[in-house]
Write a structure and sequence with these properties.
Number of domains: 2
CATH topology of the largest domain: Rossmann fold
Helix content: 40-55%
CATH superfamily of the largest domain: NAD(P)-binding Rossmann-like Domain
Structural class: alpha/beta
Low-confidence stretches: none
Order of helices and strands: EHEHEEHEHEEEHEHHHHH
Mean pLDDT: 92
Shape: elongated
CATH architecture of the largest domain: 3-Layer(aba) Sandwich
Number of strands: 9
């Protein structure tokens, strides 16, 4: 049996994203020990009881003197809370420790690092797993969450390659495919493909729940409504932070969507059959191609 990839894996924020990675690494024998950090002692106890981590604390300071080279701290807190974690890292954590994160917006994490450290430190590898669920909290942890999903890393020229390699191998150990891109490209792409759909889902459910005065709206909603609005059950605090942190990219995508929605409204109002059929056919073709891409990715053999 090969030696574990990591020594200590420390997750700050033991919810869906952080808890799933901790549990996935533990189950695969990829770390010697998994340690959780959470604000509430109840969360710490729950994470240990569910086998997500081996032990848990309410502060990084409590384990700082244990950490060194070969250990990884994974920051999995809401985007706008990253700054306070960096403050604790700056005060207590050795520069030999590998630091990475799972925030959905990379520009705001970069700015937080620069504000706290003066520059993005070489030990910090910004990252984002493109996986998730509408579930949240400790009990949502899924050790297989990252299987066949992509993780985007956004390292800088000053990022130490040793830390990048360790983070890459960590994600590969739980079945993820690791890609790299710039911070700017990441936030633009995710603003369109992840953040905009959440805006639409939240707005649609809120519109139906508050503004349409018909008690049968949800009573007779079928599978299409359930599938389309599933993500509106996601953690409101997390998505509140994402909307604030990636505001410009999200607004750009929203404006484009609103323009297209307005044209579609006009097409329906005017009975423009050709326009409607063209939009629907084009969208179906694009969605079918996306489904094929996912199928090919899941069927592709893993590299050793």
């Amino acid at each position: 049996m090969s030696a574990p990839l990591l020594n200590k894996f420390v997750v700050v924020g033991i919810g869906l994203i952080g808890g799933s990675l901790a549990k996935g690494l533990k189950q695969r024998g990829a770390c010697v020990e998994a340690i959780g950090i959470a604000r509430k002692t109840e969360t710490c106890a729950e994470a240990v009881n569910y086998g997500i981590v081996d032990r848990a604390y309410t502060s990084l300071q409590e384990i700082a003197n244990e950490l060194g080279a070969g250990d990884v701290i994974f920051i999995a807190v809401p985007t706008l809370s990253v700054n306070s974690v960096f403050e604790e890292i700056k005060e207590f954590i050795s520069p030999e420790v590998t630091i990475t994160d799972g925030a959905s917006v990379k520009g705001s994490v970069q700015l937080a690092a620069e504000a706290v450290f003066g520059a993005v430190p070489p030990q910090l590898v910004l990252g984002h797993p493109i996986a998730g669920s509408e579930k949240s909290g400790v009990t949502a942890a899924n050790p297989n969450l990252y299987e066949h999903h992509r993780v985007i890393l956004t390292p800088f020229a000053t990022t130490d390659g040793t830390h990048v390699e360790l983070v890459t191998r960590m994600w590969q150990a739980v079945g993820a495919e690791v890609l790299s891109m710039s911070v700017e490209e990441h936030d633009e792409v995710l603003g369109a493909t992840s953040h905009l759909p959440h805006v639409i889902a939240y707005s649609l459910v809120d519109t139906l729940a508050r503004d349409i005065n018909n008690p049968n709206i949800f009573r007779y909603a079928a599978g299409g409504f359930r599938d389309f609005t599933r993500i509106a059950s996601s953690d409101p605090v997390m998505w509140h932070d994402i909307m604030r942190a990636n505001k410009l990219a999200i607004l750009k995508s929203m404006d484009l969507f609103i323009d297209n929605l307005s044209r579609l409204r006009s097409g329906i109002e005017q009975g423009d059959s050709d326009y409607l059929l063209d939009v629907f056919s084009r969208a179906k073709e694009a969605r079918d191609e996306f489904t094929l891409m996912l199928a090919r990715r899941q069927a592709a053999p893993k590299e050793d």
